[in-house]
Amino acid sequence: MVKKAYGFDKPIAVQYGIWLGKVLTGDFGMSIATGRPVTEELFRALANTVMLSAGAVIAAFSLAFVIGTFAGYRVGTPSDRAVTGIAVIGVSIPNYWLAIVLVIIFAVELNVLPATGMGPRGSETFNPFQWDHFKYLILPIITLSLIPIGIITRTTRSAVAEVLNQDFVETLRAKGLMEAEILLHVVKNALPQVLAVMGLQFGYLMGGSILVETIFTWPGTGFLLNKAILTRDLPVLQGTILILAIIFVTTNLVIDLLQTAVDPRLKR
Amino acid sequence: MSDATVNNLQPKASEVAPALKVRSYWQTVGYRLRYDYMTLFFGFVVILIILSAIFAPLLAPMDPYQSSMLNRLKPIGYKDFILGTDELGRDILSRILYGGRISLTMGILPVFIATVIGGLLGIIAGFVGGRTNMTIMRIMDVFYAFPSILLAVAISGALGGGIFNGMMSLTLVFIPPLCRVAETATSQVRNLDFVEAARATGASTFSIIRVHILGNVLGPILIYSSSLVSVSILIASGLSFLGLGVTPPEPDWGLMLNTLRQAIYIQPVICALPGVAILVTSICFNLVSDGLRSAMDVRM
């Protein structure tokens, strides 16, 4: 009876075909643990993860682009080495550990920020532009932004240093432009490369936030995935991984297309 | 007389070319490394970390499995517990030393196996080209649809927990990027003139691959895989942290972080300790890899 209800009496290939056909119509089946449709749970979680990832990437970009440009102008100096050091730490730090440390400092010792969750009302009425709600975002965003900070800083630094070595910068100087105006030209030339890396990082965060979301019990896709693994909730697992892979691939495709649109030299 | 003038006019060989020492590629790399004190220092730390894991039984002050209900969650420096005790009263220092054995193995072994498999596949794909290349590289592309952490979690979630399954999922995660690096490097070298010349002089395919391809491809592959070690350590402890890697009571840095997390309000400092071990190891591996990259002058 149970076998028939779940379609387990058919061969695996047929089962997979049926699942695939249903997915095309937007039906991911029912969650075994909660009995609710996977689509419903998935999309609510997806919105929360997008909020977190986008916030982290934007925060990382605003900091990393500034210090990366700063270092790119001073390659080889102590300040450049300091920035490169920050970048290495950003890439090497285990972010689930940083999450714990941040909770220890800000939630346990100082008691100024909430340790976990999305607030008393949950995600239904969550509004990131209100302080009462926004404070739940702060620690997860700091944690998640660390790896992108490291990677974007490195990219910006090498891109800026490379542009500064090109002849046209010399021409601009010879024409008597002020340093601020030259900076504008340099930034404009370095930006496409940096934005591409930023987009890639957004893709990684969408799929890679599972550890951080678990620690902060942030009801996003990573948390959903972890719950599904622990309860062996296969429909949820399949659906989430499929959607995350689609998002990851689409992000990469969009970046590739945008890059060729911005810089026609890449088209061959 | 005339003999002497001839001799004087004829410059000695050493004067023509003032003793120009020609260094081989690997000698140049060694020379550059010798003066890169940063890399040398962090390389030394890496060796220390590995040695402390190997000789954990000699170094550890206590039995890492010995629990004690009386000494649960004691602070740093309590009695003989130099770094305090965990939630079952086990000595943290001993567990971190022993934990290095599992954490380092899970960081290094998958990368090593993936380097061999991925490198071989990439060299075959790049050298043979055509349909073989298509088949191998498109299969690898499938894995690029997932961020590495998600892929590792998904595979070990499907296989179930345990050290072996964790290492297998990590190996699978690292094969595609290594294969791609090897393929790119190989197909660049393959069309260069000296390979053509070797073929014209009658060298066999095998010896071309062994001498000319491998000599030029090994550098990029090794650099890339050395940079993966720290990623692997991070993901491996992440898996253990989620309960998908090492199973209790084995000491592992990621698992220790997970179990100590519940004690965050009682002994906050102790809870952060295993993470420090992960952080230091990962930073050292990253910096050594960066140093090697600039010494070997590989651009990627």
Overall pLDDT level of chain B: 80
- Measure the end-to-end span of chain A: 59 Å
> Helical residue percent of chain B?
over 70%
Q: How many domains make up the 3D coordinates of chain B? A: 1
Average pLDDT of chain A: 82
Structural class of chain A: mainly alpha
Overall geometric form of chain A:
globular
Order of helices and strands of chain B: HHHHHHHHHHHHH
**Spatial extent as radius of gyration of chain A:** 23 Å
DSSP strand count of chain A: 0
Q: How many structural domains does the protein architecture of chain A include?
A: 1
Major β-sheet annotation of chain A = none
Report the largest inter-chain contact. Answer: A-B, 34 and 35 residues
Q: What is the general shape of chain B?
A: elongated
Query: What proportion of the residues of chain B form beta strands (DSSP E)?
Result: under 5%
CATH topology of chain A: MetI-like fold
**Order of SSEs of chain A:** HHHHHHHHHHH
Q: Given the helix and strand composition of chain B, which structural class is it?
A: mainly alpha
Summarize the structure.
The complex is a heterodimer of chains A (268) and B (300). Chain A is an all-alpha fold and 268 residues long.
Describe what this molecule looks like in 3D.
The complex is a heterodimer of chains A (268) and B (300). Chain A is mostly helical and 268 residues long. Chain A is 75% helix and 0% strand. Chain A has a single domain, classed as MetI-like (MetI-like fold, Orthogonal Bundle), CATH 1.10.3720. Chain A has helices at residues 2-5, 12-24, 38-73, 78-92, 95-109, 131-164, 167-174, 179-208, 210-215, 221-230, 234-262. Chain B is mainly α and 300 residues long. Chain B has a single domain, classed as MetI-like fold (Orthogonal Bundle), CATH 1.10.3720. Chain B is 73% helix and 0% strand. The longest helix of chain B has 38 residues, at 205-242. Chain B is elongated, with a radius of gyration of 26 Å. The termini of chain B are far apart. The model of chain B has no long low-confidence stretch (mean pLDDT 80). The chains are: A mainly alpha (268), B mainly alpha (300). Chain A binds chain B through residues 88-89, 91-94, 96-98, 100-101, 103-104, 108-109, 203-204, 206-208, 210-211, 214-215, 225-226, 229-230, 237, 241, 244-245, 248-249, and chain B through 145-150, 153-154, 157, 230, 234, 237-238, 241-244, 257, 261, 264-265, 268-269, 271-272, 274-275, 278-279, 282-283, 285-287, 290.
